[in-house]
Specification:
There is one protein chain. By secondary structure, the chain is α+β, with helices and mostly antiparallel strands. It folds into 6 domains: 100 residues, Rossmann fold (3-Layer(aba) Sandwich); 150 residues, 2-Layer Sandwich (D-amino Acid Aminotransferase, Chain A, domain 1); 69 residues, ATP-grasp fold, A domain (Dna Ligase, domain 1, 2-Layer Sandwich); 120 residues, 2-Layer Sandwich (D-amino Acid Aminotransferase, Chain A, domain 1); 125 residues, Glycoprotein, Type 4 Pilin, CATH 3.30.700.30; 67 residues, Beta Barrel (OB fold (Dihydrolipoamide Acetyltransferase, E2P)). It is 28% helix and 33% strand. It is built from 17 helices and 40 strands. The strands form 9 sheets. It has a 9-stranded antiparallel β-sheet with strand order 14-13-10-11-12-15-23-21-20. The chain has an 8-stranded antiparallel barrel with strand order 25-26-27-28-29-30-31-32, surrounded by 4 helices. The protein has a 5-stranded parallel β-sheet with strand order 3-2-1-4-5. Strand 11 and strand 12 form a beta hairpin.
């Protein structure tokens, strides 16, 4: 067995590999850029080697620098994780040249399957159903437009060496092809060092279902069932589950056998994933093969009990798989929610900054449910603009899908993240969405259900009453403590009242509280009573309550006359006032925000790649104004209405903070 493994990656996947290597008794080496000197994967590894500046194209994807780190550390094997150099055949070859094992597939398999154009040709030759498209190289935007017209709109523009949504665009008409083609080439070059692009038909209303395969060098190839990854934004997965709620046993077997046949045809070894698009009639079409470990591999591990990283290491060491196809279990249900440093209220645009609070839910491995959190960050750490915005992968397992969803709801409500924008509210909203609960979500889910963007969750009346009752009981406890600390309750001279008005989500609830040692009865003015019990004390940022026998978890922050409470995707400013205070508050005028309608504000921290207009230009609604790059993604900012540019405050190459004024209009 290997004595020392270098992980040619960063973040949560580097930490994930380190955990398995440590359990196997193998020493680990981390590599890090200037931006990652204090990163968690550097802290976890047995040793670490610096490889260059923060940008990935000057550090993590520079083969010579990584090879030098391998030499310096004396590692006898390298695990590439995913992204970066994981599907780069030249990297695998460079390792072979110095006698170091690559924990992944052979160079030839990477070249055949890792290249999206070549893999589709091989799949077609092997009799695998593929999506219509143009697999040749495309020279420029004009040729891209011509090809797209022949295929028929909408089309998908994809990086040949791509993955993780990088270098990928959907185009519905000619103008979007021209813009998308160039942006895809730029992203592909920056992320993978390869700007080749191909185009295929975009299948509407599809499901994204993939098969996990595992193969050794002794002729054994297995499939470890499927994962459904249909909930995506900007072509990058957000929520995954295993198995798929849509497949039946026959389709699962057919997809698995086809995936294994394709892997065997190219001499594949190690873990890999064959991705399919599946239509409403369960017809499936080959998309691509990812010749690496997938981000969402934990859900497969949870339903099979197989450590995929360990299997990759053993296969790379020349061992035969210790299991047969009949040994592969399908035990229970697992769900993964990807926690991203992306603000869902700003169109899921990246957010950077310091994690002032980072408290994941406790990990559990029980007979009735499990909670797992794969992460690469820590409280006080910095979320950099240079890399992928993923913070963590929160996974839950239970014997059935409904229980796994409920476990995820509780885990998300218990996950505390402060200091940056993040998508926890959106993830919570999905867990309660009827389409997801019914297992009917397609890859169009976000576009269809949130066409105007995510604006948070509006709680129904029953949920509002539960929160109102909790807030009233909590506020009463806080008031008692405050008056005691201030000395105003000496000799029982002043007593905290029992009558309150709770204002939240535009509604007022008049309540009367009758408290005892074990909790409080909160009576509403219509006579309804809710029993509230909790051990919450003022200052705690997480409150676990019992409301009439049902649990309620609230993230809590103090505000004037109340709390900011967050639960199940809702973000509420809750005011708790005496009846007289509520009467007076109703007379106060609302404070209006600053008018920014004549400004283009930077929606996220990033670097200006291109300015498309100049002062004095008249712009039309939808016209591209500039392009800002953040976390390896290019974002085209467009005019919301017709106007004249009066001032341009930014230049190409500038690094901008969120809400920086890029340009102003007449």
């Amino acid at each position: 067995m290997f004595k020392k493994i270098l992980i040619a990656n960063r973040g949560e996947i580097a930490c994930r590999v380190i955990k398995t290597a440590r359990r196997m008794g193998i020493a680990t080496v981390a590599i890090y850029s200037d931006a990652d000197r204090g990163a968690l994967h550097v802290r976890m590894a047995d040793e670490a080697v610096h490889i260059g500046p923060a940008p990935a194209n000057q550090s993590y994807i520079v083969i010579d620098r990584v090879i030098e780190a391998v030499r310096e550390s004396g590692a006898d094997a390298v695990h590439p994780g995913y992204g970066f150099l994981s599907e780069n055949s030249k990297f695998a070859e460079a390792l072979a040249d110095i006698g170091v094992a690559f924990i992944g597939p052979p160079k030839g398999a990477i070249e055949k399957m890792g290249d999206k154009i070549t893999s589709k040709k091989i799949a077609a030759e092997a009799g695998v159903s593929t999506v219509p498209g143009y697999m040749g190289l495309i020279a420029d935007g004009d040729e891209a437009v011509k090809i797209s017209g022949e295929i028929g709109y909408p089309v998908m523009i994809k990086a040949s060496a791509g993955g993780g949504g990088k270098g990928m665009r959907i185009a519905w008409e000619e103008g979007e092809v021209r813009e998308g083609f160039q942006s895809s080439k730029n992203e592909a070059a920056n992320s993978f060092g390869d700007d080749r692009i191909f185009i295929e038909k975009f299948v509407t209303q599809p499901r994204h279902i993939e098969i996990q395969v595992l193969a050794d060098s002794h002729g054994n190839t297995l499939y470890l069932n499927e994962r459904e990854c249909s909930i995506q934004r900007r072509n990058q997965k957000v929520i995954e589950e295993a198995p798929s709620p849509f497949l039946d046993a026959d389709t699962r077997r057919a997809m698995g056998e086809q995936a294994c046949a394709l892997a065997a045809a190219v001499g594949y070894t190690s873990a890999g994933t064959v991705e399919f698009i599946v239509d409403g009639d369960r017809n499936f079409y080959f998309l691509e093969m990812n010749t690496r470990l997938q981000v969402e591999h934990p859900v497969t591990e949870l339903i099979t009990g197989i450590d995929l990283v360990e299997q990759m290491i053993r296969v790379a060491n020349g061992e035969a798989l210790s299991m047969a196809q009949d040994d592969i279990a399908l035990n229970g249900w697992a769900i993964e929610s990807r926690l991203y440093a992306e603000d869902p209220y700003r169109g899921f645009l990246p957010s950077t900054g310091r994690l002032t609070r980072y408290r994941p839910p406790a990990e559990v491995a029980g007979a009735d449910h499990a909670v797992r959190n794969d992460t690469g960050v820590f409280e006080g750490g910095e979320i950099s603009m240079f890399y992928d915005p993923m913070i963590a992968k929160l996974c839950t397992w239970a014997p059935n899908r409904a229980a796994a969803i409920e476990a995820m709801r509780v885990a998300l409500d218990s996950f505390e993240v402060e200091g940056i924008g993040h998508n926890l509210p959106f993830l919570s909203a999905v867990m309660d969405h009827p389409k997801f609960i019914a297992g009917e979500a397609t890859t169009a889910f976000i576009a269809e259900e949130y066409p105007d963007g995510f604006e948070g969750v509006t709680l129904d009346d029953a949920a509002l009453r539960r929160v109102a009752a909790a807030a009233a009981a909590m506020y009463r406890v806080a008031e008692i403590r405050r008056t005691r600390v201030s000395g105003r309750m000496d000799n029982h001279e002043r007593k905290v009242g029992d009558d309150w008005v709770v204002r939240l989500q535009g509604q007022d609830f008049a309540v009367r509280i009758a408290a005892d040692r074990n909790g409080a009865d909160v009576r509403f003015d219509d006579g309804a009573v809710l029993r509230v019990a909790s051990d919450w004390t003022p200052g705690q940022t997480l409150a676990r309550l019992d409301i009439d026998g049902a649990p309620l978890i609230l993230k809590v922050a103090k505000i004037t006359h109340g709390f900011r409470l967050r639960t199940r995707g809702a973000d509420l400013d809750v005011r708790v006032m005496s009846p007289r205070q509520a009467e007076l508050a109703a007379l106060m005028p609302e404070k209006k925000g600053a008018d920014t309608s004549k400004m283009l504000l930077c929606p996220m921290p990033g670097r200006v790649v291109r300015i498309d207009v100049a002062e004095g230009d008249t712009v039309q609604q939808g016209q591209a104004l500039c392009t800002v790059e953040a976390m390896k993604m290019e974002n085209i900012l467009r005019a919301e209405k017709q106007g004249v540019v009066t001032k341009v405050n930014a230049a190409e190459g500038d690094n901008l903070a969120v809400d920086a004024v890029i340009m102003e209009f007449e």
